[in-house]
Amino acid sequence: MHLPSEIIKLYSLLGSTKTEQPVLKTFILAIFAGGFIALGALGSQIISCGVVPTAFGRALSGIIFPIGLSMVIIAGGELFTGNCLLFIPVLDKQISLFDFCKNLTIVYLGNFVGSLFIAVLANYGHVLSLYNGELVKSVMTTASVKANIPFIDAFVKGILCNVLVCISVWASQAAEELSGRIIALFLPIFLFIVCGFEHSVANMYFIPCGMLAQHVYGAAGHISFFGMIMNLIPVTLGNLVGGSFLVGGGYYLAYMKAMRGYEDD
After folding, report:
1. Three-state DSSP class for 251?
2. How far apart are alpha carbons 80 and 104 in whole angstroms?
3. pLDDT tens digit string along 133-188?
4. Does residue 262 surpass a pLDDT of 70?
5. Are 161 and 41 in contact (CB under 8 A)?
């Protein structure tokens, strides 16, 4: 098992690797990551559809959703929420703030493309036709609820979400074996799903999927592009605060001396 002081050194060195790779490579890997998260989100909707009580359905969603992040970690991908930890090498002066912002922008756009791609396939491939139309209703309800969350609520839930996502990514680096990495990343993601926190990349799938379902299935709904934007703005800002400033900044302050070789743990 790798100690936290070892993990933070790894992230500091990882910053240059991520920010110096070609833009096209970063964008492609971001598309994959967005697609993986969207597939996990789709699976979580399918398994929880119609389940009562609702809390049990949410728990089932929490079991399936982490599959998306496990694919990102194991198969390779660039995920906006996880890359917020690149704030660590910014603080350690290994990369510039400009490089940090550039990476997050490219990755965010790629994640959106990948998530939207899965939303389109799920609708036009009629994956949502399961359960005699009940899945479509569930997908639209989820999208509508997310598109109408008050700004401050979305912001706070975004903070809490990415604290757990970044702890999940962080914890997965502690394990040396594949099985250990999957177990480590699973638990915090399960918790964020059960608590109903807001993940910007997942919402890039959830809300467009509901919007498309209105047209593909002719279902009544009022999910708008404006509603999606008014969700993504506060959630994205919250994710940035939770991942970069709280987790990244907090661990940097805690292990700053260890990173500079003044202490061992």
Report:
1. helix
2. 6
3. 899 999 999 999 999 999 999 999 999 999 999 999 999 888 888 888 899 999 99
4. no
5. no
Going by the DSSP 8-state scheme, the letter that residue 241 receives in this structure is I
How many CB atoms are located within 10 Å of the residue 246 CB? Answer: 18
From residue 64, give the alpha-carbon distance in Å to each of 46, 140, 159, 232, 234: 10, 20, 22, 23, 26
Tokens of 125: 């491939």
Give the integer Cα–Cα distance in Å for 38 and 205: 6
Tens-place pLDDT, residues 99-138:
999 999 999 999 999 999 999 999 999 999 999 989 999 9
- Determine the Cα–Cα distance for residues 182 and 242; give it in Å rounded to an integer: 22
Distance CA 89, CA 100 (A): 9
What is the phi/psi pair of residue 62, to 5°?
-65, -25
State yes or no: cis peptide before 53, omega within 30 of 0.
Answer: yes
For residue 217, give both structure tokens: 């299935």
CA distance 32 to 76: 8
The alpha carbons of the chain give a radius of gyration, in whole angstroms, of 18
CA atoms of 185 and 128, how far apart (whole Å): 28
